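Sanity check

After download, print the first record. It should look like this:
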Amino acid sequence: MEESIKQEESAQESEMTGAQPVTSHQRHSVAKLIKDMWPAYLIEIFVIILGISITLALEAWREGIKEDHLEQVYLKNLLSDVETDQVSLRNTIASTEKLLVNGDELLALIRNPQGKTILPDRMKENLRTILERPNFISRDASFSDLKSSGNLHLLKNIRLKNLLFAYYAETQHIRELQNAEQQATIVLSGNYFLKLFSMDDKIIRGDPAPVDAIPSLLHSVEFDNQVLLRVSNRKELMAVYKNADALCGEVKKELSAKIE
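Expected structure tokens:
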């Protein structure tokens, strides 16, 4: 009785709203349709997810190839810079060794003036040599670009990264020491020695400093200090040059192993 009343009320409401009443048969049809179609819906969702995954994988693969190529470009540029640096370093080391030989000769005379006679021209040659400033200037354009561009992650080898940072930190140390030496040479040594000796052999002069004037110069405390300062500064730089050369060799070896 109650069910009949509800059906009549539902029919009246449908008539009032103009909508057709949903019968149990229609509800059954919708449920059957969902039941029959859910495998197709599931397959469609799977295909969409698979398509997105493949697209992302392909994009990552293309990006990986691009990064690998860019890494090789950086590795080759870094190797070129390091090879150039090594040649420059070894030339600087050779020039510094010559400077130290001449400086040590002067120091030996200062410490034992009666031990050996030296002519003014030979002393002038020694002084000219110790006043030279063979400098090493590193080529760091590739490494600077690698850092500033945010591409440092392209270098996947941790040992190579550490070697590069250690090497270029050492080249920065060299630059600072060379700048300090330049100031000391200009302000202290240069002015002193230029007042005593002509550095230019092309200028014709009457009579060079007499031989008997050399012993008194060798007993001068200021002369001793100036020669010792130049030799000490260069010995400090020589140690750093050799350390940089050793690091340079390690970096070069590591880079060569990574280049395809």
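If your output differs, re-run the checksum step. Summary of this record's structure: The chain has one domain: 72-258.
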